[in-house]
Structure formats: structure tokens, C-alpha cells
Automatic annotation (TrEMBL):
Protein name (Swiss-Prot/TrEMBL): Right-handed parallel beta-helix repeat-containing protein
InterPro entries from the UniProt entry: Beta_helix, Ig-like_fold, PbH1, Pectin_lyas_fold, Pectin_lyase_fold/virulence, PKD/Chitinase_dom, PKD_dom, PKD_dom_sf
Species of the source: Halorussus limi
Cellular compartments per GO CC: membrane
Keyword Protein biosynthesis set for record: no
All residue ranges annotated as the PKD/Chitinase domain in the record: 867-958
Region (Disordered): 907-928, 959-991
């Protein structure tokens, strides 16, 4: 009997099952063997360690002459503190192991050279048998001017502070060193008032309890501070007062005070805190009371911690003042240390500050007023900082300068990766570092001080920080700051700059160039300096995209000499670029691309003056608000030029408010009819307006001009009147605000010129008519079309200035708008002046506009809207069937279609695209219920200009047993072949009464390929059935299994080939028949096994 096919299949299945069972077992055996090998190695190591214990060299005395430690005589077990005395050199050779006991300090007053190799490093660590909690103290450098400490290719493990620097003399080099599991700092520079020359290269700091490297000579940037008592009696319970003056802006959400074992504050609680706040002017009183922000007071071992409800910033030169009761004085007279600490999220923000508490019989108490500390000549290069409890690199000194922190990697730091603070920070380079996983409310790079200068932050890659780069200055100038070529992502803010001026003359200058600031939760680039003069600020070549707030935001008192150019600002969740200032003068915004932001494209908002400002050659596209928005609150003659800009697809095109010297020239302002989502509205104007010209809403600025009458008649403010009496004409301007006191402002470049006082309104002035070059808005040579309203003019004849004065504006030529193209050869449409025009409408609410003559053709390229076209396949479709929606036939006559937005209605029981989510040219949908569904498509080109109307198609969804063919549907409902006049290829749809079913689906077997496959496959089924019966009867079979299988495969191949060549349905038949054949063979095998077994 021929039973080879089922037996062969059974053998194959058994082999596969055997292999799948054996493979894991074999892998497990191999793993067990490897584990056994590792255990053997471990046992050998333990044995070696035990055997080597007898070879230890114990060190208990100081080193007074040149000494060498080598691997052969080690390990060196240090059982008592050891000092390398001045003039002596300790040399530790490669491969040597040094084992300090618990609490042991190695002090270097002379020289230490411990230089291993990559293959034979030096190890300084507790003994392997010591408990994990055991810590040796530190290698402490106390060298002189000619001392040198060199560590290379060494591992320092299980220390409190691996390396402590207590001298400002000599030189320290650390190269290729690994510092691991230090309970406090990896390298700590303390005491003294300065630092030696310190170089750290290619080293690793991991599992550090506090800071990787802490450079904090003296007490850091802390000024005059003190702790005082109401009582001078030892052991008396009394009140203490603490004052801590800070030299740089410092954030905190907790304030900690520790008495170090002398005196007692263990019973201080919330009710004990009598005073807690900030003294901002140094007069001894609290100006900002922090008591309402106190959440709780936690007492610990002779210390207490005031925890706040939120984080606050203590300004530079402010003093934190605390008065707390229930304190026990020390039991003897003397000077006692009190440690003060400001923390944010548990991370110390200042250097460890120890104040002296003097308890004297005389009652005299001194203040901490240490000499200025200086940290300089320091570099950290090519090193790795991983898992530090506070900052990676922390520097705090009165003067911090000449630092280089380059090419390092920082990750998993609870504090800032790099933090520099001081009264003065200058000549610092932070370059080529990678920072990630920075702690909550901690910056990647943070630099804070009173005065900042010559700072370069370049080519750093930062992710997961509060601010990627944070710069904070107060009360002095900040000059020559360069933030260049950095990448900041997934942070709260990309680059954050904060400056607070103490005097009007203080300024900030900086360059922000070639940075990539993307996908941050807040602003991409934020500069907040509300009282500062920003001079020579350059924002150039940055890519600012995908941020959760404004892309670029600058706030200042004065913006002068500012250049914003060559930036790409896209896809931000608020304005693209926002400039806020009291005065914005002598500046340029040029050649930027500002697109797809959820607010204005470029917004310039000034409170006093915008003058001598140019906005040119920008591409402002598809923003949810105004494309170019220049808005001054006071009406004045500010000279602003907006020229050669492409402004398209925004909610509004261009808006100029309050600047009567504006010139809007040679721009392309087209299709500003923002169609996706809700536009950001401008009060009083409907979206879809090309150009808006209006007055300032808050008053006016003017100067005397030809007026002979005393101007103080206009101003109901005696103080201003007296000031006017003392001045000659044309040397001043007057600022009038509604319902506010007027004031005099020196200089008048942007002031309106007054021609005369009004006799009709005793408190009015008429603006000078002959000075039209200054006192009108010019709109010329622009292409403005594709809007509901091409331009709206809204300038009142009477500009309210305050309750006692009004200005007459020349109403005959408020806006000169000649030689513009309005979308039609016939010119614009105006209700009264030019009703026959067919171009964009020009609307004059108040004021007047002269738009004749107009241009008959565009000055630049003629832009068009794209045309949408949508198809659906298959159509009709069965319930649950995958339907492909295609917009590939959509087109754009002068560009390319870039985004496709499909929508399906009704949405119930539909899985598919929505209009809010752009997709590729195709999308898929499936339908859970029968019915007719409308598919719509809106497309947009590369400018963001959308198709005028959506293209639509109707998809008929039927039960699977009643889904007709496309041809039948077309015959049943010929009218369903049209979608919309705008659709180039209408989509065929089906009437609800279409017929079909299983018969129509099986009709594919009547084709030539279907019949041939049926003969072959049917023959195989018949012969197989006969063979199966004979096998069950234990009789011979007439035809062998190979022949039967060959016939089946041939039939399936014919069906698949015919299906691929275009016969609908045969491909599915071929695949389904293959699955059926395999199932029958498996069933036959199982049956025969059952019979024979």
C-alpha cells in the first residue's frame, strides 16, 4: 500500500517539534555550563584574594621622601591617615591596588603621581571583603605652588569625596580616571579663595551621591551672611535670626538649616518660624514674605527644613531672612558652624555654606564676610557623568572665569548637567557636550550671575531638561553671549535667557545662531528682559519647530540693532516669532520662513515706538493668526517697511497698527483664508483679510511742529505743563494715553507733527498736512488676492489721546494704496468708489484710502489654489471591507500638492481618517454598517494654500452577501458617477437596491483560467478521495500521492497566475484552495495515525 504522503508529513512534523523542544534544552545546558564556568572563575578569584591577604603591605605613617608603590608589593592597605609631605613625591605604578580603610584620608602636600595604563590600571578602593557601606574619606590635595597631583587610568571607588582640592596653588591633572560609588562628590574643590589649574580628561563619574565635579572655593557666590541670637546665655532657649545674601539668582523649594551637633533646633516646627522672606533692598526688612508659601517644616537630626508649596527664585543680591524660635544655645561660649542649604526637588542649588554662630559673653556676633572667591583655569574634556544625585559639573564662586567644559556626556543627573554661578561669570566655553535625562526643573546647561560676558555655548545636544540652555543675569550687563549650533529637544524650553536690569543703561547683547530647538513642551527660544535694553542681538539660522508654545519669544524694554534672519520657525503651538518691547528701533527681520504655527507668524508688539524697522524677504505661510502683525499701542509716525514678503494661507495677511509711517511694498499677499481648525482671531476683523491698517488703541505721540500756541493747553496735567514751559519747541514729544497722565519724552523721530490747534475742539490738534511722507501709510506694488477682503482701513478721523485731548488725522489720504494687483484686471471691489471691480474687496471703516490706479496683472508669479480629486476602491464595498481612498489625481497648477486631509461622514461605525490628521495621498477606511457614506478630501500645496472646496465621493456599503460588482452598480445608478464639478475623475457609487451574491462571485470559474484550474484541482480532489477511502480500508491506491499532489498544485498555480494577470477573484480562489489542500492532508494524516495506532 502507498501511504508515503501522510507518513512523510508526519515525519516532518515530528522533526520540527523535536527540534523546537531540543533547542531550548540545549541552550539551557550551554547557559548552565557557562554559569558553572563563571562560578569556577569566581571561586578562583575568591581563593586568590584569600591567598593574597597574607601579601598585604600596611601603610600607617606619613611619606616624607620620594616613595614608589608597585603592584608586586601590593595591595597597600592604609590603616591610618597618611600625608605626602611637602617636597616628597609618592609614585604609584600601573597595576597597583591601594585599599584605604574606613574614613581614611590621603593628604598630598607634595606630589602624587598615580599613572596606570589602559591595560594595567591603578585601583584605589576599600578592601573587597569590606561591607558596602564602608567609605574611605578622600585624596585631599593641599599642595604648594610647585606641587603636582596626577591621576591617570585609575579607579577611585567607595569614597566619600574621591578627590578633594583644598589649595589654590599648583596643578592637578586627572586623565582616564573612573570615579564610582562616591557618597558625596567625585571631585570637590573647597576652602581657600581660589583654585589651582585643574584638568579633567576622558574620565568617568558614575553613581555619585551628589556632584560629579564641584568647584566651590570659599563659600561660593555668597555675600555677607550671619546667624544671631536674642540671648547670649549658654544653654538658653531663645530665638535665632539667619540672614543669607546670594550673589546670583537661585531657585528653591526648600530651605535647610543644620546646627552640626552644637545647640539645638530639633524642636523647630511650623509654628516656630516667626519670619521667613526676602530682603530685596538690603535694609534689613522683609520685602517678599514667603510664610504664605510654607507647606511644612520638617525637623531632622539637629536640623530643620522649610518646604514651600512651589519653587521661588531668590534674586541676586537679595537676602533670605529667617527668624525661628525654640532654639537651644550651645552649652559653652564659642564659635559654632551652622550649615545653610537652598534646594529644588531635593537638589542643592548653592555651594555648601557654613555660617559662623558666635556665642559670646559680650553678646557680640560676627557676620560671614569672606574675601571674594575665584574659580578659574579649569577644564573638563571628554568625560562621562552618569547617575549623579545633584549636578554633573557645578561651579560656584564670586568670580568664575576661564572654564572649558567640552566633549562630555551627562545622563541621569538629578540637578543640572552643567551649572555655573557667580557674581561674575566670563570667558567660559561649553561645547560639544551631550546631556540627557536631566532632573525635574533642572537645566541642561545653567549659567547664573550678576554679570555675564564672553560666554560660548556651542554644539551641545540636550534632551529631557527644564531649559536646554538657561542663562540668568541680574543688575549688571550681559555681553558677548554666543549660543550657537546646539540641538535641544524634549525639554520644557529650548533656550531660556533671563535678564533684569537695575538701571536703564544696563544692556544685554548676544548671538543665537544655527540652533535646532524642536519638540519642547514650551517655547523654543525665550528671552525675557522686561527692564533691559537689548543691543545688537542676532537671531540667525535657527530651526525652531514643533514646540508647545511660541517658537521665538523676545521681551525687552528696548530692542535696538536687532537682526532676526534666515530662521525656519514652523509647527509651533503659539506664535512663530513674538517680539514685545517698549521701543523697537533700528532693526531688521529678514529672510525667515515662518509656517504652520498656531498663532501669528511674526508678531511685533510695542508700547511706545516702532521705528526704522524693516521686515523683508520672509516666507510667512499657513499660520493660524496674522502673518505679519506690527502693532504699536500708540499712534505715531513710526517708519516701518514691509517689503518683498510672501504671505499666504494665514488667517490674516498683514496688519499694521499705530505706525503712520509704514510702507507696505512689493509683497505677495494671497489666499489668507486659513481653513484648518479654528483661526486665532484679531478683535474686530474677520479671518480672510489680506491687509489691515488701523490706529493705535492707547493714545498718540506728537511734537510741536508749527504750533505757536502753548501745548500745555492740550494737557490737563500740571506737572507736564510745568515741564513744557521749560523746553523750547521741537525738542520734545508728548505722549498722551486715554484716562492716564500724559508725560514728556525726549527725542521725536517717530512723533506725529502738529499743524495747529483746533478751534472747534479746544483740546484738539490738527496733524500737519504737508508732511504726508511721514503721516500716511503707503501700500504699493503688492499682489493681494484670494481673500474675502483684500484690505481694511480703520483709522479714525479723531484719534482719542486722553480725556482732555484729541488729534485730527488728515482724512483725505490716510492710506495710499496705488498700483496694487487685486486679483482681477478690473481692480478691487469697493462699495462706493469702485463697485464694478471684481478683485478683492477694499473696505474703509474709518479714514480713507486711495487705491487708483490699480495694476491689471500681478507683479510676481500668479498663484492658484490646488484642485482636490478623490476616489474610493472598491466601491461598492462590503461591511468591514478595507476601502482605499485616493487623492493621487489631485493637482496644483503652480506647485505641488503636499498635504491630504480625508474625512468620512457620517462618522459612526467608521474606522478611517479624519480631517484633523493629514495623511499621504492614500488612506484606508472600513465601515461597520451598511449605507451610503460621503468621503471628502481637502488638499493643500507647499504654501499651505488649500483647495477652494472639498472633493467628495459616495461609498456604498452593503452586506457581504449583497455586494454587487462595480459594473452592475453603474448600470443600476448612472447618476452616482458624478462627484463634484471640481473632481477630475468622478467616483462611481451604487444604489441601495444593487444585487449580487455567491453566484456572481463564483462566476470567475467560468473563465478560461478558472475552468483549467478547476479541472486540475477537481481531479486531485477526486483521486485523493479515492485514495483516502482505500487507505482506510487498508487497500492499495490506484494513483500515487506525488501525482495527486502535483495535480492539486498545478490547479492552484493556474488560478494564482490568472488572478495576477487580471482576472478578479481567481487570486483569492488559488490561495484559499491551497489552505484547503493543506488542511485535508493534515486531516488524512491524523486519521491514518488513529487507525493504525
Amino acid at each position: 500500500m502507498n501511504r508515503a504522503p501522510p507518513r512523510t508529513l508526519a515525519l516532518l512534523l515530528v522533526s520540527v517539534l523535536a527540534l523546537s523542544a531540543v533547542a531550548p534544552a540545549t541552550a539551557g545546558l550551554a547557559a548552565d555550563a557557562a554559569s558553572a564556568g563563571d562560578a569556577s572563575v569566581g571561586d578562583a578569584s575568591t581563593s586568590d584574594a584569600s591567598a593574597g591577604a597574607a601579601d598585604l603591605t600596611y601603610v600607617e605613617s606619613d611619606i616624607t621622601e620620594d616613595t614608589t608603590w608597585n603592584a608586586a608589593d601590593g595591595p597597600y592597605r592604609i590603616a591610618a591617615d597618611v600625608t605626602v609631605e611637602a617636597g616628597a613625591t609618592l609614585t604609584v605604578e600601573p597595576g597597583t591596588t591601594v585599599q584605604p580603610a574606613a574614613g581614611i584620608r590621603i593628604t598630598v602636600e607634595g606630589n602624587l603621581t598615580a599613572e596606570g595604563t589602559e591595560s594595567d590600571p591603578i585601583t584605589v578602593a576599600t578592601a573587597p571583603q569590606a561591607p558596602d557601606a564602608v567609605r574611605w574619606a578622600s585624596i585631599r590635595y593641599e599642595g604648594g605652588p610647585r606641587s603636582h597631583l596626577s591621576l591617570a587610568h585609575a579607579t577611585l571607588e567607595n569614597a566619600t569625596n574621591a578627590l578633594t582640592v583644598g589649595s589654590s596653588a599648583g596643578r592637578i591633572d586627572v586623565t582616564g580616571v573612573t570615579v564610582r560609588n562616591a557618597s558625596r562628590d567625585g571631585i570637590r574643590v573647597v576652602n581657600g579663595t581660589g583654585t589651582p589649574k585643574l584638568t579633567v580628561e576622558d574620565s568617568t563619574f558614575t553613581d555619585i551621591g551628589e556632584r560629579g565635579i564641584a568647584v566651590t572655593p570659599g563659600v561660593g557666590a555668597v555675600g555677607e551672611s550671619r546667624v544671631t541670637s536674642n540671648s547670649s546665655s549658654p544653654g538658653n532657649r531663645t530665638e535665632h535670626q539667619l540672614a543669607l545674601a546670594l550673589g546670583a539668582d537661585t531657585t528653591m523649594d526648600a530651605f535647610r538649616v543644620a546646627y552640626r551637633g552644637h545647640g539645638g533646633v530639633g524642636e523647630v516646627d511650623r509654628s516656630s518660624i516667626r519670619k521667613f522672606g526676602l530682603d530685596l533692598d538690603g535694609n534689613g526688612s522683609v520685602d517678599w514674605n514667603l510664610l504664605p508659601l510654607v507647606k511644612t517644616v520638617v525637623d531632622r537630626s539637629n536640623s530643620y527644613e522649610i518646604r514651600l508649596r512651589r519653587t521661588v527664585t531668590v534674586p541676586a543680591d537679595a537676602t533670605v531672612r529667617v527668624a525661628y524660635e525654640g532654639v537651644e544655645n550651645p552649652r559653652t561660649y564659642g564659635t559654632y558652624p551652622v550649615e545653610v542649604d537652598l534646594r529644588t526637588n531635593g537638589v542643592a542649588q548653592t555651594a555648601t555654606t557654613v555660617l559662623s554662630f558666635d556665642l559670646r559673653s559680650s553678646g557680640e556676633q560676627s557676620a560671614l564676610d569672606s574675601p571674594p572667591s575665584r574659580a578659574s583655569d579649569f577644564s573638563v574634556t571628554g568625560s562621562t557623568f552618569d547617575s549623579t544625585g545633584e549636578q554633573g559639573v557645578f561651579v560656584a564662586a564670586d568670580v568664575a572665569r576661564e572654564f572649558r567644559i567640552t566633549g562630555n556626556s551627562f545622563s541621569d543627573t538629578r540637578g543640572s548637567g552643567i551649572a555655573l554661578r557667580g557674581r561674575r561669570v566670563d570667558s567660559v566655553t561649553v561645547r560639544g557636550n551631550r546631556l540627557a535625562e536631566i532632573g525635574r526643573e533642572a537645566d541642561g546647561v545653567r549659567i547664573a550671575g550678576r554679570r555675564l560676558s564672553d560666554l560660548t555655548v556651542r554644539r551641545n545636544r540636550i534632551a529631557g531638561a527644564d531649559a536646554g540652555v538657561g542663562l540668568y543675569a541680574r543688575n549688571e550687563n550681559a555681553d558677548r553671549i554666543r549660543v550657537v549650533s546646539n540641538v535641544v529637544t524634549d525639554s520644557t524650553t529650548g533656550v531660556r535667557v533671563r535678564h533684569r536690569a537695575e538701571h536703564y543703561s544696563q544692556h544685554l547683547s548676544m548671538t543665537l545662531a544655527d540652533n535646532e530647538l524642536a519638540d519642547n513642551a514650551g517655547r523654543g527660544l525665550s528671552v525675557v528682559a522686561p527692564s533691559t535694553r537689548l543691543e545688537g542681538v542676532t537671531v540667525r539660522g535657527n530651526e525652531i519647530s514643533g514646540n508647545g508654545n511660541a517658537g521665538l519669544s523676545v521681551e525687552a524694554n528696548v530692542l535696538t540693532g536687532t537682526a532676526v534672519r534666515d530662521n525656519v520657525i514652523e509647527d509651533n503651538d503659539a506664535a512663530g516669532a513674538r517680539l514685545l518691547a517698549g521701543r523697537f528701533v533700528r532693526s531688521a527681520v529678514r529672510n525667515n520662513t515662518v509656517a504652520r504655527n498656531r498663532g501669528d507668524g511674526l508678531s511685533v508688539r510695542t508700547e511706545l515706538v516702532v521705528h526704522d524697522v524693516s521686515v523683508t524677504d520672509n516666507r510667512v505661510l499657513d499660520n493660524a493668526g496674522v502673518g505679519l502683525n506690527v502693532n504699536n499701542s500708540l499712534t505715531h509716525a513710526g517708519a516701518v517697511e514691509l517689503s518683498r514678503n510672501l504671505v499666504a494661507a494665514n488667517a490674516y495677511g498683514i496688519r499694521v497698527a499705530g505706525a503712520f509711517g509704514a510702507r507696505i511694498l512689493n509683497n505677495t499677499v494671497v489666499y489668507n483664508t486659513y481653513g484648518l481648525g479654528a483661526p486665532v482671531r484679531t478683535d474686530g476683523y474677520r479671518p480672510g483679510t489680506g491687509i489691515v491698517v488701523e490706529e493705535g488703541e492707547a493714545g498718540a505721540i506728537f511734537r510741536t511742529g508749527e504750533v505757536t500756541e502753548p501745548l500745555r493747553e492740550l494737557v490737563d496735567d500740571r506737572q507736564v505743563g510745568r515741564m513744557l514751559d521749560r523746553r523750547s519747541p521741537d525738542t520734545y514729544t508728548v505722549v498722551l494715553r486715554p484716562n492716564e497722565a500724559a508725560h514728556v519724552w525726549e527725542g521725536g523721530d517717530a512723533a506725529l507733527t502738529v499743524r495747529a490747534l483746533s478751534a472747534d475742539i479746544p483740546t484738539g490738534v490738527v496733524l500737519r498736512k504737508s508732511d504726508e511722507s511721514r503721516q500716511r501709510v503707503v501700500v504699493r506694488g503688492n499682489d493681494v488676492y484670494g481673500h474675502d477682503r483684500g484690505m481694511t482701513v480703520n483709522v479714525s478721523t479723531l484719534v482719542d489721546a486722553n480725556t482732555t485731548a484729541r488729534l485730527f488725522v488728515n482724512a483725505t489720504r490716510t492710506v495710499v494704496a496705488e498700483r496694487n494687483y487685486w486679483g482681477a484686471e478690473s481692480g478691487p471691489t469697493h462699495a462706493s468708489i469702485h463697485p464694478e471691480g471684481t478683485g478683492d474687496r477694499v473696505v474703509t471703516r474709518r479714514g480713507w484710502v486711495d487705491f487708483v490706479p490699480s495694476a491689471a496683472s500681478p507683479h510676481g508669479p500668479r498663484y492658484h489654489r490646488p484642485v482636490a480629486n478623490v476616489t474610493a476602491s472598491p466601491n461598492p464595498a462590503a461591511v468591514g471591507e478595507r476601502v482605499v481612498l485616493s487623492g493621487r489625481e489631485s493637482s496644483d497648477g503652480d506647485g505641488r500638492v503636499e498635504t491630504y486631509r480625508f474625512a468620512v461622514a457620517p462618522r459612526q461605525n467608521v474606522t478611517g481618517p479624519t480631517a484633523e490628521t493629514p495623511s499621504s495621498p492614500t488612506a484606508t477606511a472600513s465601515f461597520g454598517e451598511t449605507g451610503n457614506y460621503t468621503v471628502s478630501l481637502v488638499v493643500a500645496n507647499e504654501l499651505g494654500v488649500e483647495s477652494a472646496d472639498p472633493a467628495t465621493a459616495t461609498v456604498a456599503v452593503r452586506n457581504r452577501s449583497a455586494t454587487p460588482t462595480t459594473a452592475e452598480a453603474a448600470m443600476t445608478d448612472p447618476a452616482a458617477t458624478t462627484a463634484a464639478e471640481r473632481s477630475a475623475n468622478p467616483t462611481t457609487t451604487l444604489s441601495a437596491n444593487g444585487e449580487g451574491g455567491l453566484v456572481s462571485q463564483l462566476s470567475v470559474l467560468a473563465t478560461l483560467g478558472g475552468l483549467l484550474g478547476l479541472v486540475l484541482y477537481g481531479g486531485a480532489l477526486a483521486l485523493g478521495a479515492v485514495g483516502a477511502v482505500q487507505t482506510v480500508r487498508r487497500a492499495g491506491v490506484p494513483v500515487g500521492g506525488k501525482t495527486i499532489n502535483g495535480l492539486a498544485v498545478a490547479g492552484m498555480a493556474v488560478w494564482v497566475a490568472a488572478g495576477l494577470l487580471g482576472t478578479d477573484g481567481l487570486l483569492a480562489v488559488g490561495v484559499g484552495s491551497g489552505v484547503l489542500w493543506v488542511a485535508l492532508v493534515v486531516l488524512l494524516w491524523a486519521l491514518t495515525r488513529f487507525i493504525y495506532d
